[in-house]
Amino acid sequence: MKFIKYCVLLSGIALLMGGCVSKTSNNNEAKEEYGHTLEDSIKSIEVEIDSCRSQVSLLSDQVGVWMRDFTNVSKPREAGSYLIMSSWVNRYPLTSTGLVARINDNGQFELIAALSGGTFEAVSVQAPEETAVSDNVPNDQALNYRANGLNTVLFTGEKADAIGELISDNELNPLTLSFIQGNGKVVKTWKISSEYAKMISYTWLLYSNKMALAKAQAKIPMLQEKIKILRIHHNGMTQDKTE
Fold it and tell me: How much is the pTM?
Protein backbone atom coordinates (compact mmCIF):
# COMPACT_ATOMS: atom_id res chain seq x y z
CA MET A 1 0.00 0.00 0.00
CA LYS A 2 2.84 2.37 0.89
CA PHE A 3 4.51 1.48 -2.40
CA ILE A 4 1.36 2.42 -4.34
CA LYS A 5 1.14 5.79 -2.52
CA TYR A 6 4.80 6.43 -3.30
CA CYS A 7 4.25 5.70 -6.99
CA VAL A 8 1.26 8.03 -7.08
CA LEU A 9 3.34 10.78 -5.41
CA LEU A 10 6.14 10.35 -7.95
CA SER A 11 3.64 10.45 -10.78
CA GLY A 12 2.19 13.72 -9.42
CA ILE A 13 5.63 15.31 -9.14
CA ALA A 14 6.44 14.20 -12.67
CA LEU A 15 3.24 15.76 -13.98
CA LEU A 16 3.97 19.03 -12.16
CA MET A 17 7.54 19.10 -13.47
CA GLY A 18 6.26 18.37 -16.95
CA GLY A 19 3.79 21.22 -16.67
CA CYS A 20 6.54 23.62 -15.56
CA VAL A 21 8.77 22.57 -18.46
CA SER A 22 5.86 23.01 -20.88
CA LYS A 23 5.05 26.48 -19.52
CA THR A 24 8.73 27.54 -19.62
CA SER A 25 9.01 26.28 -23.18
CA ASN A 26 5.85 28.13 -24.22
CA ASN A 27 7.09 31.35 -22.56
CA ASN A 28 10.43 31.11 -24.36
CA GLU A 29 8.68 30.52 -27.68
CA ALA A 30 6.38 33.48 -27.07
CA LYS A 31 9.35 35.73 -26.20
CA GLU A 32 11.25 34.58 -29.26
CA GLU A 33 8.24 35.20 -31.48
CA TYR A 34 7.76 38.66 -29.94
CA GLY A 35 11.45 39.39 -30.52
CA HIS A 36 11.03 38.53 -34.20
CA THR A 37 7.99 40.80 -34.33
CA LEU A 38 10.05 43.68 -32.91
CA GLU A 39 12.80 43.03 -35.47
CA ASP A 40 10.25 43.03 -38.29
CA SER A 41 8.76 46.29 -36.99
CA ILE A 42 12.19 47.92 -36.91
CA LYS A 43 12.93 46.81 -40.47
CA SER A 44 9.53 48.06 -41.64
CA ILE A 45 10.10 51.49 -40.09
CA GLU A 46 13.60 51.65 -41.61
CA VAL A 47 12.03 51.07 -45.03
CA GLU A 48 9.51 53.83 -44.28
CA ILE A 49 12.32 56.22 -43.30
CA ASP A 50 14.12 55.50 -46.59
CA SER A 51 10.85 56.20 -48.43
CA CYS A 52 10.42 59.50 -46.55
CA ARG A 53 13.98 60.53 -47.39
CA SER A 54 13.35 59.82 -51.07
CA GLN A 55 10.13 61.83 -50.86
CA VAL A 56 11.96 64.73 -49.17
CA SER A 57 14.58 64.72 -51.94
CA LEU A 58 11.92 64.66 -54.68
CA LEU A 59 9.74 67.35 -53.07
CA SER A 60 12.77 69.58 -52.40
CA ASP A 61 13.58 69.46 -56.11
CA GLN A 62 9.96 70.21 -57.04
CA VAL A 63 9.74 73.15 -54.64
CA GLY A 64 13.03 74.46 -56.03
CA VAL A 65 11.61 74.35 -59.56
CA TRP A 66 8.35 76.08 -58.55
CA MET A 67 10.22 78.78 -56.61
CA ARG A 68 11.89 79.98 -59.83
CA ASP A 69 8.53 81.50 -60.86
CA PHE A 70 7.95 83.30 -57.54
CA THR A 71 9.20 86.46 -55.85
CA ASN A 72 9.27 87.23 -52.13
CA VAL A 73 7.70 90.65 -51.61
CA SER A 74 8.21 92.74 -48.49
CA LYS A 75 6.79 96.26 -48.30
CA PRO A 76 7.05 98.67 -45.32
CA ARG A 77 3.31 99.44 -45.36
CA GLU A 78 2.29 95.76 -45.29
CA ALA A 79 2.23 93.60 -42.15
CA GLY A 80 4.46 90.83 -43.47
CA SER A 81 6.17 89.46 -46.54
CA TYR A 82 4.64 87.02 -49.00
CA LEU A 83 5.43 84.90 -52.03
CA ILE A 84 3.65 85.79 -55.25
CA MET A 85 4.12 84.69 -58.84
CA SER A 86 6.81 86.94 -60.32
CA SER A 87 4.71 87.96 -63.33
CA TRP A 88 2.08 89.30 -60.92
CA VAL A 89 4.30 91.40 -58.64
CA ASN A 90 3.38 94.61 -60.45
CA ARG A 91 -0.29 93.62 -60.81
CA TYR A 92 -0.93 93.29 -57.08
CA PRO A 93 -2.61 94.81 -55.05
CA LEU A 94 -5.61 94.56 -57.36
CA THR A 95 -7.19 97.79 -58.60
CA SER A 96 -10.23 96.17 -60.21
CA THR A 97 -12.35 93.02 -59.96
CA GLY A 98 -10.22 89.89 -59.72
CA LEU A 99 -8.75 87.08 -57.62
CA VAL A 100 -5.10 86.65 -56.61
CA ALA A 101 -3.28 83.90 -54.70
CA ARG A 102 -0.18 84.26 -52.58
CA ILE A 103 1.66 82.48 -49.74
CA ASN A 104 2.24 84.53 -46.58
CA ASP A 105 5.37 84.52 -44.42
CA ASN A 106 3.79 81.88 -42.14
CA GLY A 107 3.51 79.52 -45.09
CA GLN A 108 -0.29 79.87 -45.41
CA PHE A 109 -2.11 79.91 -48.74
CA GLU A 110 -4.13 83.11 -49.18
CA LEU A 111 -6.72 84.25 -51.70
CA ILE A 112 -7.40 87.94 -52.17
CA ALA A 113 -10.63 88.79 -54.00
CA ALA A 114 -11.56 92.27 -55.16
CA LEU A 115 -14.89 93.62 -56.42
CA SER A 116 -15.30 97.00 -58.08
CA GLY A 117 -18.56 98.86 -57.47
CA GLY A 118 -20.06 96.45 -54.94
CA THR A 119 -19.58 94.80 -51.55
CA PHE A 120 -19.25 91.15 -50.51
CA GLU A 121 -18.19 88.92 -47.63
CA ALA A 122 -17.61 85.55 -49.32
CA VAL A 123 -16.80 84.01 -52.68
CA SER A 124 -17.47 80.73 -54.43
CA VAL A 125 -15.79 79.15 -57.44
CA GLN A 126 -17.76 76.96 -59.82
CA ALA A 127 -16.06 74.33 -61.99
CA PRO A 128 -17.95 72.06 -64.43
CA GLU A 129 -18.60 69.38 -61.79
CA GLU A 130 -18.00 70.96 -58.38
CA THR A 131 -18.10 74.16 -56.35
CA ALA A 132 -16.00 75.47 -53.46
CA VAL A 133 -17.19 78.21 -51.11
CA SER A 134 -15.13 80.41 -48.79
CA ASP A 135 -15.80 81.42 -45.20
CA ASN A 136 -17.72 84.63 -44.56
CA VAL A 137 -15.41 87.54 -43.72
CA PRO A 138 -17.43 90.56 -42.49
CA ASN A 139 -16.28 94.09 -43.27
CA ASP A 140 -13.74 95.11 -40.62
CA GLN A 141 -11.25 97.22 -42.61
CA ALA A 142 -8.60 94.57 -41.90
CA LEU A 143 -9.33 91.37 -43.84
CA ASN A 144 -12.37 92.93 -45.53
CA TYR A 145 -11.74 96.55 -46.45
CA ARG A 146 -13.20 99.13 -48.79
CA ALA A 147 -11.45 102.01 -50.52
CA ASN A 148 -12.00 104.01 -53.71
CA GLY A 149 -15.01 101.96 -54.75
CA LEU A 150 -13.13 98.66 -54.44
CA ASN A 151 -14.00 95.99 -51.86
CA THR A 152 -11.06 93.69 -51.14
CA VAL A 153 -11.29 90.57 -48.95
CA LEU A 154 -8.56 88.19 -47.84
CA PHE A 155 -9.44 84.51 -47.38
CA THR A 156 -7.34 81.82 -45.72
CA GLY A 157 -7.84 78.48 -44.00
CA GLU A 158 -9.32 75.16 -45.12
CA LYS A 159 -12.03 76.63 -47.35
CA ALA A 160 -9.58 78.94 -49.12
CA ASP A 161 -7.31 75.91 -49.61
CA ALA A 162 -10.25 74.01 -51.13
CA ILE A 163 -10.83 76.83 -53.63
CA GLY A 164 -7.14 76.87 -54.56
CA GLU A 165 -7.15 73.10 -55.09
CA LEU A 166 -10.37 73.27 -57.13
CA ILE A 167 -8.91 75.91 -59.45
CA SER A 168 -5.66 73.95 -59.79
CA ASP A 169 -7.54 70.75 -60.66
CA ASN A 170 -9.67 72.63 -63.23
CA GLU A 171 -7.13 75.09 -64.60
CA LEU A 172 -8.03 74.26 -68.20
CA ASN A 173 -11.80 74.12 -67.56
CA PRO A 174 -14.30 77.01 -67.43
CA LEU A 175 -14.26 78.60 -63.96
CA THR A 176 -16.61 81.20 -62.52
CA LEU A 177 -16.08 83.34 -59.42
CA SER A 178 -19.17 84.53 -57.53
CA PHE A 179 -19.12 87.41 -55.06
CA ILE A 180 -21.55 86.79 -52.20
CA GLN A 181 -22.97 89.17 -49.58
CA GLY A 182 -23.45 88.22 -45.93
CA ASN A 183 -27.10 87.29 -46.53
CA GLY A 184 -26.06 84.76 -49.19
CA LYS A 185 -27.03 86.91 -52.17
CA VAL A 186 -24.74 86.72 -55.21
CA VAL A 187 -23.97 90.28 -56.27
CA LYS A 188 -21.71 89.53 -59.23
CA THR A 189 -20.22 86.63 -61.20
CA TRP A 190 -16.86 86.90 -62.92
CA LYS A 191 -15.24 84.50 -65.36
CA ILE A 192 -11.76 83.45 -64.22
CA SER A 193 -9.54 83.87 -67.26
CA SER A 194 -6.73 81.42 -68.12
CA GLU A 195 -4.01 83.77 -66.84
CA TYR A 196 -5.72 84.12 -63.45
CA ALA A 197 -6.34 80.36 -63.27
CA LYS A 198 -2.69 79.63 -64.09
CA MET A 199 -1.43 82.05 -61.42
CA ILE A 200 -3.69 80.57 -58.73
CA SER A 201 -2.90 77.00 -59.83
CA TYR A 202 0.87 77.57 -59.73
CA THR A 203 0.59 79.17 -56.28
CA TRP A 204 -1.46 76.25 -54.99
CA LEU A 205 1.02 73.71 -56.38
CA LEU A 206 3.96 75.49 -54.73
CA TYR A 207 2.04 75.66 -51.45
CA SER A 208 0.91 72.02 -51.51
CA ASN A 209 4.43 70.83 -52.35
CA LYS A 210 5.89 72.91 -49.52
CA MET A 211 3.32 71.45 -47.11
CA ALA A 212 4.05 67.89 -48.23
CA LEU A 213 7.79 68.53 -47.87
CA ALA A 214 7.39 69.87 -44.32
CA LYS A 215 5.22 66.86 -43.40
CA ALA A 216 7.77 64.36 -44.77
CA GLN A 217 10.65 66.14 -43.02
CA ALA A 218 8.80 66.10 -39.70
CA LYS A 219 7.94 62.41 -40.05
CA ILE A 220 11.56 61.19 -40.22
CA PRO A 221 12.62 62.08 -36.63
CA MET A 222 9.32 60.69 -35.34
CA LEU A 223 10.02 57.35 -37.04
CA GLN A 224 13.61 57.39 -35.79
CA GLU A 225 12.32 57.83 -32.24
CA LYS A 226 10.02 54.82 -32.73
CA ILE A 227 12.98 52.69 -33.82
CA LYS A 228 14.96 53.87 -30.81
CA ILE A 229 12.19 52.75 -28.42
CA LEU A 230 11.77 49.40 -30.18
CA ARG A 231 15.54 48.73 -30.07
CA ILE A 232 15.73 49.53 -26.36
CA HIS A 233 12.86 47.10 -25.76
CA HIS A 234 14.45 44.45 -27.99
CA ASN A 235 17.87 44.80 -26.35
CA GLY A 236 16.22 44.46 -22.93
CA MET A 237 14.63 41.19 -23.99
CA THR A 238 17.95 39.91 -25.34
CA GLN A 239 19.70 40.68 -22.05
CA ASP A 240 16.94 38.88 -20.09
CA LYS A 241 17.40 35.86 -22.30
CA THR A 242 21.16 35.64 -21.73
CA GLU A 243 21.01 36.12 -17.97
Answer: 0.81
